[in-house]
Structures are given as C-alpha cells and as structure tokens.
Amino acid sequence: MIGAAVLVVVGLVLLTVAADRLVLSAARLARIWGMSAVLIGALVIGMGTSAPELLVSTLAAARGEMDMAIGNIVGSNVANLSLVLGVSVMILPVAGHLHTIKREGILMLAAVVAFSALAWEGTISTVEGAGLIIGIIISAFLLVSWSRRDVAEGIVKLDANKLAPPGKGAAVELTVGLLALAVTLVGADLLVRGARIVAIELGLSQGFIGLSLVAVGTSLPELATGIAAARRHENALVIGNVLGSNLFNSLGVAGAAALAGTGTFTAGFRTPIIFMLVISTLAGVLTATGNRLVRWEGAVLVVAYVGFLALAL
C-alpha cells in the first residue's frame, strides 16, 4: 500500500512538472516558428495540457482498464470546467469576447455531447473511436481558421512573449520538449500503476479512482496554467485552456482510448456523464451572462466540483 502511494505521488509530480515543461517548449517553438499567439492559446496550451489525460487513458485502455480510462476523461472534463475554471475566476474575474466564447463553447459542448452519447451504453467501438479522432482533426482545423480570422480582424490579441519567453533556439526547445514528453509518459505510467493498486487495496472501483484521483492529477497542468493566466490577466487563455482541454479530452483522448483498448467498460458512468453535461452547460451559461465570470460564480463552480466527488463516491 505504501509502495502504491509512492508510485501515485511520484507519478503525479513527474506528470505535472514534465507536462508543464512540455507545454512551455511547445509554446516557445510555436513562437519561434511564427505561429499566431491566438493559435498558441487555443491549440498549444489548451490541447497541450491534455497530454496527461491522453497518456493516462490510452495506457489504461491498452491494459484493459477501460473503466479507469473513461473515468479519467469524465472526471477531467468536470474538473476543468468546475475546479480549474472556478479557482481561476476566484483569483481574478474573467472576461472575454462574447462571440468567441460562444463559438468555441458550442464546439466544446458538441464534443462533450458526442462523447456522452457514445459512452452512454457502456462501450465505444473502434469505428466510433476513429470517428472521434476525425472529429478532433476537424475541430483543430476550425480553431486554426477562427484564430487566423480573429487575428486578421484584430478581434483578439495575445502577447506570446508573456507565455513563452525567448529560449535558446528551436533545436534546444525541441530536445527539451521531447525529453519532457518522455518523462510525462513515465509519470502517467506510474500514476496508472499506483492508482490500480490503491483501488484494489481499498476496495474502490477503478471507475471511481479514474473519476477522482487520476482525473485531478491529470488536470493539474490545466489548473496551473489557468492560475498563471488569471494572475497575468490573460482572460482568453483562462477560457481557451479549459474549452480546448475538454474538446480534446472528449474527442482525441476518448478516441485514442477506444482504439487502444477493448472499448467496453463495466462501471456505471451514466450519473457522472449527466453531471458532466450539466456542469458544461452551467459553465457556458455563467460565462455567457454579462460576458464575464465573477468570483462568486467561480465559487459556485468549485462547490459543484465538491458535489461531483461526493456523488461519485
């Protein structure tokens, strides 16, 4: 039991530190290679922070632990839109461009609904998994197109230097990024191994461990990014981070897990899935009203997350 706890702690530490460095390297490379700053926020940061979810769920699915894989996706989506967004807003109220929030929010909600519909009966087939992968490719194309149009029209401006100060060059950042990816993979593997042992020792289901411990652990990069963005007054990043992460979780991560594993899971995820849909809608409504999120609304989201954990238990 102590050994399993050590694996979990070490896995979480490696996962958090390495994933953060991976995102930083990606952002620096994007700036060096001339990518737009808005695109950095939408794709590199938002989807990049979902790398732990991708690795953990894919590894779990490959080992036949689809309950943990799906639990991680559902739990991470809920954590992003309640815990991560709520804590960020409690630090600093978030405001953004209403049409941008609606546009990306609708895309994210569509992805969550699609994933929920496929997972409702307790299985995601290989064909459906491939469809989800195609969905994330199409979504990435839309995000790139929207970002370019926003930059061209001067709607959104984001100083990439605040997120990615100049490094020593593309070769160095590429090397560091690959090393960070390798360490992230190791951390994800240790976390899955430790969580599985803890579940067995405590008599807890793999589904619950995935919904809670593993989901929170893989959402730490999003939480760290959200807090940092809020403190820097980067409102677009706070919202783009959680929307992009949930978009990638629902399509890319779920699709990869279905392709890597059997696609069938035994845990009853219908109640958590309903909660995920409700919190996604709640976050969207709170964001759309007044074009901003204030501290008390952030507190509501955090309380909602506590309620989700109590419900999952």
How would you describe this protein?
- The chain has 313 residues and is mostly helical.
- 81% of the residues lie in helices and 1% in strands.
- It contains twelve helices and two strands, in the order ααααβαααααααβα.
- The protein has helices at 2-32, 37-45, 51-62, 66-91, 98-119, 126-153, 160-163, 170-202, 206-231, 235-260, 270-288, 295-312; strands spanning 94-95, 292-293.
- A two-stranded antiparallel sheet has the order 1-2.
- Helix 4 (66-91) runs antiparallel to helix 12.
- The chain is globular and about 55 Å long.
- The two termini are 20 Å apart.
Low-confidence stretches: none
Amino-to-carboxy terminus distance:
20 Å
* SSE topology string: HHHHEHHHHHHHEH
Percent of residues in beta strands?
Answer: under 5%
- Counting copies of identical and different chains, the oligomeric state is single chain
Helix content: over 70%
Average pLDDT across residues?
A: 80
Radius of gyration: 18 Å
Give a brief rundown of this model.
By secondary structure, this protein is mainly alpha-helical. Helix content is 81%, strand content 1%. It is built from twelve helices and two strands.
